[in-house]
Amino acid sequence: MVPLFTAMEKTFNFKVLGCRMNHAEQREMESVLRARGLTPNSDAPDIEVVHTCSVTGQAAAKSRNAIRRAKKSGKTVFVTGCFTGTDPDVASELGDVIVKQEGSVPMIERFAQAVDAYLQLPTPESVKRVETVSLPIATLPSTKANHVRAELRIQDGCDAHCTFCIIPKIRTTLRSKTIDDVVTEATRLVELGHQEVVFTGVFIGAFGHETALRRKQTTPDAEHLADLFDAVAQVKGLKRLRISSMEPGDVTEPLLDAMVANQPIVVPHLHLPLQSGSKQVLRKMNRQYDIEDYMEMIAMTKERLLINGLPPAITTDIICGFPTETEDDFAQTVTVAEKVGYLHMHVFPYSIRTGTAAARWKQLPPTVVRERVNQLLELDESLSLSYRKQLLGKQVEVMLEQDLGDGTWKGRCEHYAEITLKTSGTKGTLVPAKVTEVNPDSTIAMPTLQII
Ligand code: SF4
Question: How many angstroms is it from 164 CA to the middle of ligand 1?
Fold first, then answer.
């Protein structure tokens, strides 16, 4: 790519904390820097971009430390990400250039403007956009993403206000890319060598809408997620398409139809945060579903995505020890988890996030929370083993991600299980294999054909 400008020998480095969204945004910001002629240098960069997270108090503390460390080495420190929203004063005090997530102009465009100001370059007209609720592509990616599975941000922002979550106070404006832009970006990622793309977003089910509150989603002519799947699955050379996380209420029949119609590109895996199996706790959390809705949606998903006799992989997030969670509430969570049969549960002990409603409520004793977490972690192991046993003897395709040496690799199959196998394949390629062994710690396969 020809740089928009030439920044004489300036270099950059990124420190990224937090979720997949942040990694997708890092790739977008990196494209902005490269388009201006900056090059990466992790030893002595001119600019260090600290892309922060503050979803928990601990993440905020890590972000603060990362900014401090970057500042000590005398670089110009750009601070971006959620910490700029929760702790703007600290971010301004510690960093040099602050680019907040919130604002009427999309963050990526304000980042581009801040870089231009730092370089004392004129901002091109294309970047001087005014207020918009669309999510523009500032600059198409010019290098591969850090992960084998390339994150592609399709949506940003949330206004659902779950009582434990700070995000709606940080990423306040809901924005979505257009289907055409997502296709363009996915095409570029494939050209750069990625075979798998993962759609990311804060509230992916609000794709095309200006609110995450379903009862208020009345955007005329909204583009639909199902159409997005149809369009991106046609990208030449794309082998796999995955969605990072969906709110349970957004799994609809048209969406499942699109997933089935676009097999095998769209994989039979969904991450559907449960958070709690108790009706009472879900209400206190201000989630947009109750447990009957959740179980109905799970039944529909299992039925529609049953492919070659294998049920879809379902993964989830669960918060343990939310204020007001009784023993009985927790027991209901365990029951729901057993009924669903998750491949994997991300279990989080509830932790106070200042600025949220739940932070003001009476907290459970830490020992109780820890006990419940441990119980769920044990359950996670047994549920994962039960699900993975269904893969035994089945043909899968493994995306090689981690080289363990000696020709041994780890990767994910279409059903998201982590697979270990010996192969001459290379990172980022798909290897057809047959699952030969499933044990509590690993799922082992043997390659069956040459590399795809
Ligand atoms: S849906 Fe709830 S948990 Fe998810 S980002 Fe919005 S407020 Fe946070």
Answer: 8
CA separation for the pair 60, 63 (Å, rounded): 5
Q: Tell me whether residue 205 is in a domain.
A: no
Model confidence band, residue 356 (pLDDT cutoffs 50, 70, 90): very high
Asked whether the predicted pLDDT for residue 221 surpasses 90, the reply is no
Q: Please state whether the predicted TM-score (pTM) of the whole model is above 0.85.
A: yes
CATH code where residue 99 lies: 3.40.50.2300
Packing angle of the helix pair 366-389, 327-340 (nearest 10 deg): 10
Q: Is 203 in the pocket of ligand 1 (CB under 6 A)?
A: yes
Percentage of residues in the chain having pLDDT higher than 90? 74
417 and 385 in contact (C-beta within 8 Å)? no
Is residue 42 domain-resident?
Answer: yes
Is 257 a member of any domain?
Answer: no
Q: Which of 132, 162, 187 is the last residue of a domain?
A: 132
Centroid of chain to Cα 252: 20
Number of domains in the chain: 2
Q: What is the mean pLDDT of the chain?
A: 91
Which is the closest atom of ligand 1 to the Cα of 158? 6
Location of structure tokens 């990172």? 427
CATH of the domain at 443: 2.40.50.140
433-452: average pLDDT: 88
Structural domain for 402, as ranges: 391-447
Nearest CA to ligand 1 atom 8: 165
**Ligand 1 touching residue 158 (CB < 6 A):** yes
Longest dimension (CA), the chain: 64
Higher pLDDT among residues 232 and 220, named by residue: 232
Pick from 108, 132, 156: which residue ends a domain?
132
